[in-house]
C-alpha cells in the first residue's frame, strides 16, 4: 500500500507520543504492546477510506487522528483480552500481564482507553464521539456474551456471529463510519462504509477462529488452540458438533485432560466444519467487497480491496 506508507510511518511515531504517561510502569506496559508491532490493518483501512471519499484523495488531520485513536482502542482491548484469555504471548513477545501482573495490565488497558477518549473528545465532533464510544461499549458486551457462553455447546452460529460483531467487527464498522462523518458525507455513504467494515470485520474474526484450529502461533499473534482451552466455542467447533459427538463430551469436561485440545482439533479437521466456516467468512467478505465494487470504483478502492484479499488469503 504505497499510497499510505508515509501515513503509516507517521502513525507509529504519533502513537508513542500519544501514550506518554508520567507513571513509568503504565507507559512501559502500554509501550510493550505497541512495540510488538502488528499489521496496522485498522488505520490502513481508515486512511484508504479517507482517500476514496475525500476531494483530491487527501487524508484530513482529523482522519489521521481517528486512525491513531482506533489503534489505541484496539490495543487497549488486546491488553484486557490477554488477561481474560490467559494468553501469555502476543505477536511473539510476552504479554503485558506476564511482564508485570494482571492488575497492572488491566490498569494499562484502562489508561489506553482513557487516552483514546481524551483524543476523541478533542476532535470536537459529537457524532464521531458517539460512533466511536459505541465500540468500547460493544467490546464489553462482547466479552460478557462470550463469558456467558463459555463451554456452552448449545451456542448457535447466529450467537457466535453476534458475539464476533461486538468483539471485532464493531471497531472496523464504526471507525469506517466515523471517517465518513469527518468528511461531512450523507447518511447513505456513512451506512455503506459501516456495512463494508462490519462484513470485513466479521470475515476477519471467522478467519482468525479458523486459524486457531488450523494455523500456527506466529500467524495468529497468540498461541493456537487458545479458544478451545478458554471455552470460547467458535465456528469450526460449533459446526463440527453435529458430526462428532465425542466433542460434546470434551466440552462438558472443559478439555480438562492433557491431550484434549490436540484431540479436539484433530476431530474437527475430520469433518467439513472448517470448509463451512470458510464459506461463511467468504460470504461476509464478498458482501464487503460488493459495496466497494458497485459504488466506489476509484484508484484507492483497489488498495482497499487488496486488504480484503490479504485477509482472505490467510486461509487459502
TrEMBL record:
<dbReference type="GO" id="GO:1901663">
    <property type="term" value="P:quinone biosynthetic process"/>
</dbReference>
<keyword id="KW-0479">Metal-binding</keyword>
<dbReference type="InterPro" id="IPR000092">
    <property type="entry name" value="Polyprenyl_synt"/>
</dbReference>
<dbReference type="GO" id="GO:0046872">
    <property type="term" value="F:metal ion binding"/>
</dbReference>
<dbReference type="Pfam" id="PF00348">
    <property type="entry name" value="polyprenyl_synt"/>
</dbReference>
<keyword id="KW-0460">Magnesium</keyword>
<keyword id="KW-0414">Isoprene biosynthesis</keyword>
<dbReference type="GO" id="GO:0008299">
    <property type="term" value="P:isoprenoid biosynthetic process"/>
</dbReference>
<comment type="similarity">
    <text>Belongs to the FPP/GGPP synthase family.</text>
</comment>
<dbReference type="InterPro" id="IPR033749">
    <property type="entry name" value="Polyprenyl_synt_CS"/>
</dbReference>
<dbReference type="InterPro" id="IPR008949">
    <property type="entry name" value="Isoprenoid_synthase_dom_sf"/>
</dbReference>
<keyword id="KW-0934">Plastid</keyword>
<dbReference type="GO" id="GO:0004659">
    <property type="term" value="F:prenyltransferase activity"/>
</dbReference>
<keyword id="KW-0808">Transferase</keyword>
<protein>
    <submittedName>
        <fullName>Prenyl transferase</fullName>
    </submittedName>
</protein>
